[in-house]
Amino acid sequence: MAIKKPIVVRSIAPLRKAVAGLRGKHRKVALVPTMGALHDGHFALIKQARRRADVVVVSIFVNPAQFAPTEDLASYPRDIQRDLAALTDLGVDLVWAPTEKVMYPDGFSTAVTPGGPAKAGLEDTFRPHFFGGVTTVVSKLFLQVAPNIALFGQKDYQQLKVVTRMAKDLDIPVTIVGVPTMRDKDGLAMSSRNVYLSVEERTVAPTLHRVLKDSAAKIRAGKPIADVMATGRTTIERAGFKVDYLEARHADSLAPIAPAADGPIRLLVAAKLGKTRLIDNLGV
Q: Which SUPFAM superfamilies match (predicted)?
């Protein structure tokens, strides 16, 4: 029996017609937004979507609005045929793969400007353009697909919080689901950018996760958070990284946290190894 291929649409009117046909009456639609170059982390989101909904839509769009001029938009990994083959195997119902012209047509001049967790002094300090680009494109995806639920990986933890806040603030009727980070056997968080790592860098990269685990254990044991974070930064730097941040933050608000008793804690790290910038996080 042949495997059913997903519907692939590239413009708005066919998208809405296809989603309406798939939704029918009282069927739940899940959206998994991606930028392609799919890996096991994305597949975990899709499998979770299949468990939670009747219809699974995956978007593939490398969003130029979230890349600064100095970042890797042109070289960002793209392999649409490989992605479509994987999505067929996973039983995805519909793939929304718009062009840049469709997503941002001539005269496009509206953007979302997020606050709250988007101004936490983490990714926003080093990539001030980023969350405006993310929330603009994600709000468009929500309005285009009109999903009941949307799934995002916890690896991009601040992004998860920003998108959740945006949907709530703008009264977009979608439930945001955060899915735990998928990791390689050595602990490295799966990311499309991992392909940029050299063989030597790939052996060093799991240091981030090891430091997060060690730091979380020390905080649970009652060690002062400031001391633990300072030690962690030193360890990461000695491994060869350039550290942007290693922070302990409130897991919900992302506000700075000092005593562990102040609330649930999330440790977040971003660091550059060679030319590749990696991020990760872990709950305490």
A: Nucleotidylyl transferase
Binding site membership for beta-alanine: which residues?
A: 66
The CATH fold of domain 7-179: Rossmann fold (3.40.50)
8 Å CB contact between 265 and 257: yes
Question: Do 7-179 and 192-283 share a fold?
Answer: no
* Residue ranges of the binding site for (R)-pantoate: 66, 159
Starting at the edge strand found earlier in the chain, the sheet holding 29-34 runs: 7-9, 94-96, 55-60, 29-34, 149-153, 175-179
134 and 63 Cβ atoms separated by less than 8 Å? yes
* CATH (one of 3.50.50.60, 3.40.720.10, 3.30.1300.10, 3.40.30.10) for 192-283: 3.30.1300.10
Alpha-carbon span 9 to 101, nearest angstrom: 14
Helix (H, G, I), strand (E, B) or coil at 201: helix
At 193-203, the pLDDT tens digits run 999 999 999 99
To the query of whether residue 250 is one of the catalytic residues in this protein, the response is no
> Model's pTM, two decimal places?
0.93
